[in-house]
Write a structure and sequence with these properties.
By secondary structure, this protein is α+β, with helices and mostly antiparallel strands. The chain has helices at about 25-35, 50-60, 80-90, 105-120, and strands at about 40-50, 65-70, 70-80, 95-100. The chain has one domain (about 25-120). The chain has 4 helices and 4 strands; from the N terminus they run αβαββαβα. The chain has a 4-stranded antiparallel β-sheet, with helices on one face. α3 (about 80-90) crosses α4.
């Protein structure tokens, strides 16, 4: 099974061969999984401490795949922007462990520092009391 970008097809011709999709084939699910697997600069893997059904509600299917494991829900996504991946993981509102890449940890640390700086800047100064 394959997906093709229509803008890259230069021609087509009708042949004698026929194809019958599997009986339980879900075209939309296959397409979404294919798009989620398109390689980006980084393969993000994180183990989420959240029920699978909740993770599915919070995770766009074209962004990541989710797999239930004995240790939690394994999220796999390809992303070109580690800061985006960091914000996405934090936005899930659950505990998680980054499995790869280790560079994602740096992006999370940067986001944490920036958040703390914004919190500090928003607090009334001690001299205002």
């Amino acid at each position: 099974m394959r997906t093709f970008r229509l803008d890259r097809i230069r021609g087509a011709r009708l042949g004698d061969e026929r194809f019958a999709p599997p009986h339980d084939f879900d075209c939309l699910a296959f397409a979404i999984e294919s798009f989620a697997a398109i390689p980006g600069a980084w393969l993000i893997e994180a183990l989420l401490d959240i029920p699978l059904d909740r993770a599915r509600l919070l995770t766009p299917p074209d962004f990541a795949t989710l797999e239930e494991t004995p240790d939690g829900v394994l999220l796999r996504a390809h992303d070109d922007d580690l800061a985006h991946a960091a914000r996405f993981l934090l936005g899930l509102g659950c505990r998680f462990v980054v499995l790869s890449p280790t560079e994602l940890l740096t992006a999370l640390e940067t986001l944490a520092r920036e958040t703390l700086q914004m919190v500090a800047a928003s607090r009334p100064s001690a001299s205002a009391h």
